[in-house]
Specification:
There is one protein chain. The chain is mostly helical. The chain has one domain. The two termini are 19 Å apart. The longest helix is centred in the last third of the chain and has 25 residues.
C-alpha cells in the first residue's frame, strides 16, 4: 500500500473512523467498502473489513453479550454459511474491476431504496419468519463474502421484523456479524486474499477502528434512527457512482 498518497491515507483514516463509529452505535454499518474501493482494490479492502469486523463485533459484544437474542441467531447462521460459500467462489473468480462495478450498482440501488423508505414508510405487513430467515441469511452471507461488507443491513432488516429493543438489536446483529466474519475470514484465508497489502492495511486500520467503535458506543444512547438511515443512504448513493465510472 506504499503507492497511496498522504491525502489517500487521510481519507482512509476518516472513512474507517466514521464507518466504525456508525457500527459502534448501531451494531452494523455498510459504507466502508464502497468508499475505500475508490482508492484501493476491492480484493484488498474486503479481507481487511472482514478482519476489522470480527474485532469490532467482539468489542461491542464484550459489553452487550447478555442481551443477545439467541434463537434468531442460531436460526440464521447456517444460512449465512451457505451464502458465504457461494460468495467466496465469485470473489475468487471475478476480477477487481467487475467487483467494483457490481458493488457500485448494489450501493446505489440499496441507497435509493433506503432513502425512499425514510420518505415513504411501507405499511406494516406480516412476513413469515420461516421464509425470511433463509433469504436474509443466504443473501447476507453472499453479499458479505463477495464485497466484504454491506451485509449488516440484511440482518438489520431481519431483526427489525422481530421488534427487538435497541440494546438487544445491536447485540444480536453484532453477534451475527461476528459469526459471519469468522466464516468469511476463513474463506478469504483459503482464497489467499490475506496478502502483504491486506495485512498492512489491517495493521493500519486497527487503532482507527478501535477509536471509532469507542466513539460509537458513546453515541449509541442519543442515536436518531431516521437521520442515521438518511445519512447512510446518501453516502451509499454518492459512493456508488464513482465505482461505476472508475
Amino acid at each position: 500500500m506504499t503507492e497511496l498518497t498522504i491525502a489517500q491515507w487521510l481519507f482512509f483514516a476518516i472513512v474507517v473512523f466514521i464507518s466504525y463509529a456508525i457500527r459502534g452505535s448501531t451494531g452494523f454499518g455498510g459504507v466502508t467498502v464502497p468508499l475505500l474501493a475508490l482508492i484501493m482494490s476491492v480484493k484488498t479492502v474486503a479481507p481487511m473489513v472482514t478482519f476489522l469486523g470480527i474485532i469490532s463485533s467482539a468489542m461491542i459484544l464484550q459489553k452487550d453479550y447478555r442481551h443477545i437474542a439467541w434463537p434468531p441467531l442460531r436460526k440464521i447462521l447456517p444460512w449465512c454459511g451457505l451464502g458465504v460459500l457461494i460468495g467466496i467462489h465469485f470473489f475468487k473468480t471475478l476480477d477487481s474491476e467487475t467487483l467494483a462495478n457490481a458493488l457500485g450498482i448494489f450501493a446505489i440501488g440499496y441507497g435509493v431504496h433506503s432513502m425512499w423508505r425514510t420518505l415513504r414508510p411501507a405499511p406494516e405487513r406480516y412476513l413469515p419468519m420461516k421464509a425470511i430467515t433463509p433469504i436474509a441469511g443466504t443473501v447476507g452471507g453472499f453479499v458479505g463474502a463477495l464485497f466484504g461488507a454491506s451485509a449488516g443491513i440484511f440482518f438489520a432488516m431481519y431483526l427489525d421484523l422481530l421488534h427487538l429493543g435497541k440494546v438487544a438489536f445491536r447485540a444480536t446483529v453484532a453477534a451475527i456479524l461476528f459469526g459471519l466474519g469468522i466464516m468469511r475470514g476463513s474463506g478469504y484465508l483459503w482464497a489467499g486474499a490475506y496478502d502483504r497489502d491486506a495485512l498492512i492495511i489491517c495493521a493500519a486500520a486497527i487503532p482507527v477502528m478501535a477509536l471509532g467503535v469507542w466513539a460509537g458506543n458513546h453515541l449509541h444512547a442519543n442515536l436518531e434512527p431516521l437521520k442515521f438511515k438518511r445519512f447512510v443512504a446518501t453516502v451509499l448513493i454518492l459512493s456508488g457512482l464513482p465505482l461505476l465510472l472508475r
